[in-house]
Design a protein that fits this description.
single chain, 131 residues, mainly beta, four-stranded antiparallel beta sheet, three-stranded antiparallel beta sheet, 11 strands, 35% strand
């Protein structure tokens, strides 16, 4: 059984480190991954949803935004604007309180939401996303 050691330099301040997407490049059979933290001011999270594991760059701190996309819902308009570009894969869009699916119900290009079918007049939509 192979052991893999990962070392990450962490500043000597209170911080939180997320270790995600670790990838074992060379291992015998069943690799083990040990995470050792010697700094009591550091909170470490390790996520390994698959056996495909690699050391990724440190996680960024993102903020959540909640807003109503700009544009009049009139039954004909399909394009609406967000105030900022969402972080990758972070947009949750709701039409009349129901979650709708990107790629099926709408597309996103930078800050522009384009519905596959124009929302009917009187409908409401809300967006939640990270920036």
């Amino acid at each position: 059984m192979a052991n893999t050691k990962v070392q990450v330099d962490i500043p000597a301040i209170d911080t939180k480190v997320a270790i995600t997407n670790l990838k074992v490049v060379e291992a015998d059979e069943d690799p083990n991954i040990d995470v050792v933290v010697e700094n009591p001011n550091v909170d470490v999270e390790v996520e390994t949803p698959n056996t495909d594991i690699k050391l990724n760059e440190p996680a960024l701190t993102l903020s959540w935004m909640k807003e109503v996309p700009v544009g009049l819902i009139n039954g004909a308009r399909v394009d609406f604007e967000l105030s900022q570009e969402p972080a990758a894969n972070s947009l949750f869009l709701f039409l009349n309180g129901q979650y709708i699916v990107e790629g099926t119900d709408y597309t996103l290009a930078v800050t522009t939401i384009t519905y596959a079918v124009a929302p009917r007049a009187g409908m409401q939509h809300n967006a939640q996303f990270q920036v």
